[in-house]
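Journal club prep, notes for RB
We'll compare a predicted complex against what the paper describes. Inputs for the acetoacetyl-coenzyme A case:
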Amino acid sequence: MVPVIKSIGVVGAGQMGCGIAHVSALAGYKVQIYDLSQDRIETGLATINGNLARQVGGGKLTDEERNAALALISGSSDVNDLAPMDLVIEAATEDESVKRKIYALVCPVLGPDAMLATNTSSLSITRLASATDRPERFMGIHFMNPVPVMKLVELVRGIATGEATFSAAKEYVAKLEKTATVAEDFPAFIVNRILLPMINEAIYTLYEGVGSVDAIDTAMKLGANHPMGPLQLADFIGLDTCLSIMQVLYDGLADSKYRPCPLLVKYVEAGWLGRKSGRGFYDYRGEVPVPTR
Ligand code: CAA
């Protein structure tokens, strides 16, 4: 029987977790966000509030819809508050050891029939599932950033994922009014398998001096009709996330064409992680973003 999902738990109040909470609440789900500190939760709730306001400002939502969504979202740093949730989506940092620790913490709290999903952008679903007590009720539900705007969700089954779990995830995505594509459990699935090597190539293009940040982004925006240039997009995704996805591709497919660009490694070493840290291929600390090379 396909489980009925009425409530969504979200682990991680970062960029992706907040987006998942936002769209789930707008679709009428009760949402419980869990993160380590109350500070992170407060910041996350403020982000959701701001993004909902932006949609009201753009005429996409009414004030009533925004208030109804906000009323459905709670946050706490007590993992036990996830206990009544039907589907818990882990949206933590892209680090397998962190995700494993989270599953060890969350699984004992959940009801026996609850589903657990990961928003991982690249890691093996089958391997992550094996770190849980419920591989048949575990799968990948991969959202794109910014979640409230992007229409796609990738669904990824691990080797043990049950049909009922997969059907329930499809229903959830349909209720969010997003389109699901199905990807097999290979490194970085579909979107990132194609997108990240393009971004990595843009960074090599910068590294080799073929063009400046501005020239590369302008070229791809006006020459290929991309809404953002590849370096602007890298900053938007987060350079640490870009690097970990390239590393997963490089290690998982053992092909040198996925070698992360040394310049990307350098930026991450410097803590220049893009928009979220104030600096990446652009410096965001002033009025307008300024290229850093
Ligand atoms: N929450 C809610 N609404 C948002 C939002 C957010 N976080 N960000 C933007 N919006 C809304 C704006 O309110 C605006 O709505 P209106 O049209 O009603 O005014 C609309 O989106 C467009 O925003 P802006 O006018 O501010 O900016 P824009 O036209 O430059 O578009 C963008 C912004 C939608 C982000 C666009 O630049 C874009 O599509 N960029 C590419 C994004 C992309 O490729 N994402 C995938 C990344 S890969 C990934 O996520 C996978 C992974 O695992 C790494």
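Talking point for the session: The pocket of acetoacetyl-coenzyme A is lined by residues 51, 54-55, 58, 60, 121, 144-146, 148-150, 191-192, 195, 227-228, 233, 237, 241 (CB under 6 Å).
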